[in-house]
């Protein structure tokens, strides 16, 4: 299949995809027995990548780095990719679960607070009868020791999942997927951010019209002001300033 084109947002290559093309690409890679990882990138991810060359490299070496945020969608369309649309982590998870329901393809979930991955697994199996889930793990919210990571890798490799869903924080999520890729063979890893909390019911999802408006950040800020205010008030203005500099060629982001 033809490589998916990318467009440059502050030095990060965002894949020019929508939900249908992202799903098709992932299913094609699974059918061909190839491995790889998919990152769902938002404004914060792109901002972090500007200051972290390793993280930027991880995003740029992925099978797909999807636009998981309307500002990235609008930029893609502005740069000539008319078919680009948001590939929201929870939507991608639901779409691929529906596509693999009743097949031999299996899923494994890594991430979330204690009990969240298990709740997510139960909810998805209720929603998609016949969905095959072969394991869940909720690692501690810190860097894993060498022994802990080795045990986790062994658990995952023994389960041999076709799709490994990773709900860790940035940028550790991408580094975790990069480290695991050589050991996992024909597995597609997908980093999905807050999808674990949203689809398990731990956090309320914004209505679809708010998601499409670009103001989901404001909805989530109202729900979790203490946790999210420092993140949003730092990253949104900085992202806008940097994009303005890129579009006006005041600064070049390779």
Description of the molecule:
With 254 residues, the protein is of the alpha/beta class. It is 52% helix and 15% strand. The chain contains twelve helices and eight strands. The chain has a six-stranded parallel sheet with strand order 4-3-8-7-5-6, with helices on both faces. Helix 8 links the parallel strand 7 (163-167) and strand 8. 40% of the residues are buried.
Which descriptors would you attach to this protein?
254 residues, alpha/beta, Rossmann fold, 52% helix
Q: Helices and strands in order, then pairings?
A:
Blueprint: E1 6-9, E2 12-15, H1 19-31, E3 36-41, H2 43-51, H3 53-60, E4 64-67, H4 70-78, H5 89-100, E5 106-111, H6 116-127, E6 132-137, H7 146-159, E7 163-167, H8 172-184, E8 188-191, H9 195-199, H10 208-213, H11 216-223, H12 225-247
Rg for CA atoms: 18 Å
Structural class determined from secondary elements: alpha/beta
Dominant shape: globular
Secondary structure tally, helices = 12
Question: Which whole number gives the mean pLDDT?
Answer: 89
Brief synopsis:
By secondary structure, this protein is of the alpha/beta class. It is 52% helix and 15% strand.
